[in-house]
Amino acid sequence: MKTIILVPYVASGESNEVPVAEAKFLHEEHFKDASYKQILGTGLEGRLYIKGDVGLYIIGEGKTNASMFTTALLNDKEVVASDTKFVLFGCCGCAKEVGVVGDIYFVAEAVDGELGHHADAREDGSSSNHSWYPNESFARFGYVNLENDCLNKAFELVKDEKAESSENAKLFMAKSFNNEAWATREPKIMKAASVTADSYWKGNFDHQNAKYVADTYKCKHPFAATDMEDIAVAQVFKNYNLLDQLLIMRFAVNTDVFMADQNPENLWGEGKGSFDSTSFDNFDDAFPVVTKRATDILIKIING
């Protein structure tokens, strides 16, 4: 295969037959009639869809699933990894004051947002604005530089393409952040650093943690993306000496902080679904718009 696209999201339904979310448009427009093979050691979810010389592989969510599924793929006898380009393609949150919904990030640096020490902020009597602390002995596993020829060639090919968002998302961000310049700019394609964590986190405190992690590792690119798999997949490719074969593309469908009157309880807790957006246009319509545009750009890269 010429290219294999790695997609984090699991499949939909009890039979796990139809990829959704990030893979929705890829499946509908390019892999709907594709054959597939089950990759050994990945259960029902680790399916490699094959059409022509391009594959689509579901790796599951989180660092553990992503690393295990990716390793299983690279060990498969029918996958000649050294002759294949791999693209990790998925949605992400964007960092406050840097990113907006609709941005497309070429991940040049991947960082582990959890590897180190962590203490609940309530344990800290100091004035520190973060609850993560580094451990030098872990550092070699916490950072991967991904700025290679594969990334640079792809970026040069599409850097002037237009990224897209929905009008509702633009309005929602503008109102949530008081029309600040960073929040009202048009979405764009850019190189960035991503911070990976297994939990889907939000809020100013975790934003400060992620920013501190990126600063600790002296990231040269702006911390813009928050995700759940990048560092794990990058470490696997590093261990196999295949980093030059890997490109990571993320597209922003949310922010890493709460907007409007969102809070943890009305998003995820017992009050889930009670989020009142009467004074703000909801931005759920942004996901398909952003995903479709990112998919089109991915296909342009694959077709070269």
Q: What does this 3D model show about the protein?
A:
The protein is α/β, with parallel strands linked by helices and 304 residues long. The chain contains ten helices and 14 strands. It has helices at residues 24-31, 62-75, 139-142, 149-158, 167-176, 181-184, 204-216, 230-239, 264-268, 286-303; strands spanning 3-7, 11-12, 18-19, 35-38, 47-51, 54-58, 85-94, 104-112, 117-118, 132-133, 143-145, 189-196, 223-227, 246-255. The strands form three sheets. It has a five-stranded mixed barrel, surrounded by four helices. Helix 2 packs parallel to helix 8 (230-239). The longest helix has 18 residues, at 286-303. Mean pLDDT is 87; it is low at 10-15 and 277-281.
Keywords:
304 residues, globular, single chain, five-stranded mixed barrel, alpha/beta
Number of helices: 10
Compute the separation of the termini in Å: 15 Å
Q: How much helicity do the residues have?
A: 25-40%
The H-and-E topology, N to C, reads as EEEHEEEHEEEEHEHHHEHEHEHH
Estimate what percentage of residues fall within beta strands. 15-25%
Strand arrangement within the widest β-sheet reads: 7-13-12-8-14
Shape, per Cα inertia axes: globular
Question: What class do helices, strands and sheet pairing give?
Answer: alpha/beta
Tell me the Rg in angstroms: 19 Å
The tally of beta strands, per DSSP, is 14
